[in-house]
Each structure stands twice: as structure tokens, then as C-alpha cells.
Specification:
The protein is α+β, with helices and mostly antiparallel strands. The chain folds into three domains: 2-98, Rossmann fold, CATH 3.40.50; 127-187, 2-Layer Sandwich (Dna Ligase, domain 1), CATH 3.30.1490; 193-362, 2-Layer Sandwich (D-amino Acid Aminotransferase, Chain A, domain 1), CATH 3.30.470. The protein has helices at residues 21-31, 63-71, 85-93, 105-108, 111-120, 134-143, 171-177, 233-249, 287-290, 295-304, 330-334; strands at residues 13-17, 36-41, 54-57, 75-78, 128-131, 148-152, 162-165, 183-187, 193-201, 207-209, 213-218, 221-227, 254-265, 268-277, 316-323, 339-343, 354-362. Strands 9, 10, 11, 12, 13, 14, 15, 16 and 17 form a nine-stranded antiparallel β-sheet that branches. Strand 9 (193-201) and strand 10 (207-209) form a beta hairpin.
């Protein structure tokens, strides 16, 4: 039980699986409290290595290095949800606490398991069907009419592992395009906007949430997050309620994000959950400069066993990702008032690669 774990104190070591920008920002947040961070990542150029006290560059399957890593950490977390389940299980077997509970990955790493989890608790999603064979495709097209999208069950993000099935198109073509791996066929949703709720749940079950964020995607990659979202207070309350239900059912500890569609239905709006992200999230980056507490600090507080902070927004906020060569315009952003620039320290810009972000906070009158 997470509530039985010792409370971390300054000087304790937080282990982070994954060395990307989320791990980097977690380490920076932890350092404010005198926590030491040890980052484990297979990529030698991981940008989180630059800000961590210790680093291990090794495969997630390297049990000797995992053991050494675990022995040097007091508690371990992860910055992305595709950490191999075997890696997390190995660390738990070695009696090292991992938060959030790695068992949650079995649900969130598999799109089909995630959809089943949501529908079991009467949380609405887009229509979907399982695809594992040609036979499944013929059945799925009855359950999920086109247009639709074919998605791999595992390892898909930022539009990867997906193929569009146009109106009256052949789902078999889309399934071949993603490699004929286990998948789901998901119906298109005619939504008005996309939301996410970033929230934290502590070891003792305490739950707090940031305001719902309105997200704008470009080429399947998050481009902008805007707070407050252009929704009614009632819908915002419902979105937070859905997120709390998910966090409670998972007995979650840490920060998570729930992505949703706002769908017009019979003159009103309803919420459909698109995805659960069991980690700090890109759409929560605005909280570093636009709130009284960041999502990264909240995550550290939650897994450390410390009190959570009641979030408060500091103004009208717009966070923009710097994708690929857009990072080369950093000088322009630095010259702007009420604007914070975050560069992740990655290598050469590549199309589709998140290189940094910019947050503009406009004080409210």
C-alpha cells in the first residue's frame, strides 16, 4: 500500500525511468526540495541526464543495471507510460516502491484494455471494436461505421501507429498499414473541441485538479494548450469529476491526465474520454509559469507522501509547443513580455520532435 511507504525527505533519491523532457522537468521540480534524482534511460543523449544528480544509461532489460539503479533510489517513478511492464515488475520484485503502481500500466499501455476499463465504469468513449484478424475486421465494420481510425493497441503516441479509414473505405488496408498487429477500430468523433484534465492524487487519496485545458493539435501533435477552456462551468466540473473517478478506480498516486472530446449532442454537449495518460502531461506544461504550483511539483509531492497544493491559475494562459525547427525562433519569444521560454536541450531539431515550449501568461483585470 502506498500509504504505508515512508515519507521522503530532503536528501532522499528519486529514481526516474525515462530521460525525456518530462523526466527533465520532474528532476528540476524535485531539486527545489533538496531531493536527488537518478535518471535511467537507454538513450545516451537523454535531455534529463543534464539536470540529474545521477544517471544510468542502459537497456530496460538490463537486470544488473536495474538492480544497481534500484539500490540507489528510495522511490521510483516513470516519465512515460511505455516503460516495459517487465522492467517495472522487476523493480517491484526487488522491493523498491514504484509510483504510480506499475499494475496501472497494464490498463493504460493497451488501448483495448483502457477502453474496456472506461466502459466498465460507465465512462463514455468513442465507439470501438477489437481487431486481431481479418474475421474481426468484418465484424468491426458493423459495430464501427466509417469514417474511422485504425490504432495499434500498444506503443502509439503523437499520431504514430494509426491509419485513417475514410468513408466507405476498407479497414483491411488500414490494418495492413499499421503492420497487421493487434489493434482497435475507433469511430471518428464529431467534436467541438478537445480537452484534458491534469490532476494529482496523493498516497492518502487526496485529489486536486487543475482547470480543464483546451488543446489544439497540428499533425496529430499537441500544438497549443489554452486555459481557461471555452466551456461552461458545469462541463468543467463534469470533466474534473470524470478524472477523479478514473484516479480513484485506479487507486492512482501521482499526476495523471485524461484527454476528452467535447461533443455536441441534441443541442447540448457531452464528454467522451479519448485517452488516459498515467504521468505528467504535455498539456500541463502551462502550470510551471501559469499556476501557483506546477504539475511536476504536484507529482513529486504525491509520490513523496507530502500534502498536495490546491491549484490556482495566475492569469489567461497560452502554452505553445516548439516543434522541430520552430525552436530556432527562441530569441523572438524571449523578447516578449509575460512570456516564459523552456528549451529542452535535445539534439538537432527534427520534424515532429518537441524541442521546447513557450508559455504566455496575461494577467486578468
Amino acid at each position: 500500500m502506498a500509504s504505508d511507504l515512508p515519507i521522503l525527505k530532503p536528501g532522499s533519491t528519486l529514481g526516474i525511468l525515462g530521460g525525456g523532457q518530462l523526466g527533465r522537468m520532474l528532476a528540476l521540480a524535485a531539486a527545489r526540495f533538496g531531493l536527488h534524482c537518478h535518471v535511467f534511460s537507454p538513450e545516451k543523449d537523454s535531455c534529463a541526464f543534464e539536470v540529474a544528480r545521477e544517471k544510468t544509461c542502459a537497456s530496460y532489460e538490463d537486470e544488473a543495471e536495474l538492480t544497481r539503479f534500484a539500490n540507489r533510489c528510495d522511490i521510483i517513478t516513470f516519465e512515460f507510460e511505455n516503460v516495459p511492464a517487465e522492467t517495472a515488475d522487476f523493480l517491484v520484485t526487488n522491493k523498491k516502491p514504484v509510483l504510480p503502481d506499475p499494475a496501472i500500466l497494464a490498463t493504460t499501455q493497451d488501448r483495448l484494455a483502457e477502453k474496456h476499463f472506461l466502459t466498465d465504469f460507465e465512462i463514455k468513449t468513442a465507439p470501438y471494436a477489437e481487431i486481431g484478424s481479418d474475421v474481426d475486421i468484418s465484424v468491426a465494420t458493423v459495430q464501427v461505421p466509417t469514417p474511422a481510425v485504425m490504432k495499434t493497441r500498444r506503443l502509439g503516441y503523437d499520431g504514430k501507429g494509426q491509419a485513417i479509414v475514410p468513408l466507405d473505405g476498407d479497414p483491411s488496408t488500414a490494418w495492413k498499414a499499421i503492420g497487421e498487429v493487434p489493434a482497435i477500430l475507433e469511430g471518428f468523433v464529431n467534436f467541438d473541441l478537445e480537452l484534458s484534465v491534469v490532476a494529482a492524487r496523493g498516497r492518502d487519496g487526496t485529489f486536486v485538479a487543475f482547470e480543464p485545458v483546451e488543446n489544439v493539435h497540428r499533425d496529430h501533435i499537441l500544438y497549443q494548450s489554452i486555459v481557461p477552456a471555452t466551456i461552461t462551468p458545469a462541463l468543467a466540473k463534469e470533466a474534473v469529476g470524470i478524472t477523479r473517478k478514473i484516479a480513484d478506480e485506479l487507486n492512482y498516486v501521482g499526476v495523471l491526465a485524461v484527454e476528452m472530446f467535447v461533443v455536441p449532442t441534441n443541442g447540448k454537449h457531452e464528454l467522451l474520454v479519448n485517452e488516459i495518460a498515467p504521468r505528467v502531461h504535455n498539456s500541463g506544461h502551462w502550470t510551471i509559469d501559469g499556476a501557483n504550483v506546477s504539475q511536476f511539483e504536484q507529482h513529486v509531492r504525491a509520490i513523496a507522501g507530502w500534502p498536495l497544493v490546491r491549484p490556482r491559475r495566475l492569469g489567461l494562459v497560452e502554452m505553445t509547443n516548439l516543434i522541430g525547427s520552430e525552436v530556432e525562433g527562441w530569441k523572438r519569444y524571449i523578447a516578449q513580455a509575460n512570456t516564459a521560454v523552456h528549451i529542452y536541450g535535445k539534439g538537432e531539431p527534427r520534424p515532429g520532435r518537441k524541442m521546447g515550449h513557450v508559455t504566455k501568461v496575461t494577467p486578468e483585470d
